[in-house]
């Protein structure tokens, strides 16, 4: 992974920036570099995390840039205070990539950007408009550390459904732009809402992601599929289903929904959950499957089999009659 950021986005406005850095010389360099950049306005310089909260309340910057070594309250605590404001700024934190515990902490608190303390000024100048526009920016040096605690499988399974929906909705917007601009704008609002959710999911993943209960996961799957125009039938989650099985089935539901979005033209999806013979079952069936079938070329369903093995379960999936596709998970009930 190379240590680069995407090309600088074109700034559509002038962004106000507050700088918090304990080292006097580093603070001066930061303020000078940001102040010289087009469409960036440095509205203040402070030396510690306590003062940045007070100064931000007065100046109301768009973005706060904080060095992770700032004295006073912790940078994570300052980030949390800043993000809880009525009109919160976006937070850029400059830290040591080796200190991944601190990286997780500031992301959990609400930071939108993590860059190494020795990043060249032009990289920071590029990052500020990006985070002000709603993006999360993380230098690869930090991303590599985050992956130690959140596996690549977790990244795939947490973000897969949301990113698949963004992709499909984005394609729809592109088709509608000329012929139906009003509908295109409405669909774009959905894309933006999904993008905001993906940002929250990235932060949750960095902090140590945990699924909600199965009923909550099924409801989110239903909502996402219905946004994509799929009619969904769902069943009530059986009472007293053990938490480990709920979590394993929640991952299955997420990946199955992502595959419905990616790999089908589904109009209907049925989600069934039941227990019988000391076994819990989850079955998800959709119509509109493409000939190759969902997941045929991917590794998501294979990863789910590994998750189910943890609870002694198994996964079967494959095409059915009339262009349907079925994903079914089973897990033994204790006792």
Kindly, what is the distance between the CA atoms of the first and last residues, rounded to a whole number of angstroms?
48 Å
- Helix vs. strand class: alpha/beta
| CATH homologous superfamily assignment of the largest domain | Response regulator
- Helix percent band: 40-55%
Can you identify the CATH class of the largest domain? Alpha Beta
Q: What is the total number of structural domains?
A: 3
Anisotropy-based shape: elongated
Could you tell me the mean pLDDT? 80
**How is the biggest beta sheet arranged?**
6 strands, parallel
Number of helices: 11
Number of strands: 11
Strand content: 15-25%
CATH third-level topology of the largest domain = Rossmann fold
């Amino acid at each position: 992974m190379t240590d680069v950021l995407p090309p600088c986005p074109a700034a559509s406005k002038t962004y106000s920036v507050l700088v918090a850095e304990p080292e006097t010389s580093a603070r001066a360099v930061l303020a000078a570099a940001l102040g010289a950049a087009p469409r960036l306005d440095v509205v203040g310089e402070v030396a510690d995390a306590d003062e940045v909260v007070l100064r931000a309340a007065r100046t109301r910057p768009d973005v706060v840039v904080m060095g992770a070594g700032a004295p006073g309250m912790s940078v994570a605590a300052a980030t949390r205070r800043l993000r809880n404001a009525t009109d919160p700024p976006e937070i850029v934190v400059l830290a040591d990539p080796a200190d991944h515990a601190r990286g997780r902490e500031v992301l959990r608190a609400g930071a939108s950007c993590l860059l190494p303390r020795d990043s060249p000024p032009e990289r920071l100048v590029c990052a500020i408009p990006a985070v002000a526009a709603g993006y999360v920016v993380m230098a690869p040096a930090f991303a590599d550390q985050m992956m130690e605690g959140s596996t690549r499988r977790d990244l795939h399974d947490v973000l897969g459904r949301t990113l698949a929906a963004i992709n499909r909705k984005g394609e729809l917007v592109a088709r509608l732009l000329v012929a139906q601009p009003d509908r295109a704008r409405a669909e774009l609002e959905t894309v933006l809402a999904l993008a905001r959710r993906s940002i929250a999911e990235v932060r949750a993943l960095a902090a140590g992601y945990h699924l909600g209960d199965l009923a909550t996961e099924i409801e989110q799957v239903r909502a996402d599929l219905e946004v994509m125009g799929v009619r969904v039938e769902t069943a009530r989650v059986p009472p007293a289903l053990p938490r480990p099985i709920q979590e394993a089935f929640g991952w299955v539901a997420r990946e199955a929904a992502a595959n419905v979005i990616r790999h089908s033209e589904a109009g209907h999806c049925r989600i069934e959950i039941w227990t019988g013979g000391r076994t819990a079952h989850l079955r998800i069936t959709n119509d509109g499957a493409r000939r190759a079938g969902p997941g045929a070329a991917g590794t998501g369903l294979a990863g789910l089999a590994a998750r189910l093995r943890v609870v002694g379960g198994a996964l079967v999936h494959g095409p059915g009659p009339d262009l349907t596709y079925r994903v079914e998970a089973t897990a033994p009930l204790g006792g």
